[in-house]
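pasting for ref
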Amino acid sequence: AARSGNCLRRVAAAAGAGAGALVCLALLDVEVAVAAAAETALALVGLNGRRRARVAVDGPYAALAANAASVLACARAARGVDVRRAHDLALVHVLDVGDHGPSLGLAFSPDDRHLLVAAADGAVLVCSDPKSRLLQLDAALAATHIGLDTGLFAF
C-alpha cells in the first residue's frame, strides 16, 4: 500500500531557460543536490532550488548515476558515457562503449569501484576507472611515507 505525500518544492526550469524538457535526474548525496539533464544542458541544482552549476551538452543524456565519491556518470543518448565531477560538472573523461550502441542505463556498484552500463544491444558492461589502480597504489605508497603524486581525479 502506497502512502500519499505532498510536493514540498517546485524548481522551475531546473536546467535553465531554453534547455528543453528534463530527460533524467540523479540525486547526489554528497552534494545534497540533484543533477538534471535536459535536451541541451546539464545542471546541478540544490534542494533549495538554487542552481550551482550548468554546462551545455551536445545532445541529450539517456541516464545519470552518481556515486559517493562525487562522480557523475552521464549516458549519452548517442554513444559513450561522460564522466563528470559532481560539484562543478566538469568533464573528466569519456568512456567509449564501442559497438554496444547507446547506453540506456547506469548504476554504480555498492563499493563505487565499478560502473554498470546497460547497452542497447542487451549487454551489461562492467567498467572500472583505469586510473583507480594508480590511486590505490598512491594510497598504499603514501601510507609507507614514500608517496607518489599522480595528480589524478582531484575531486
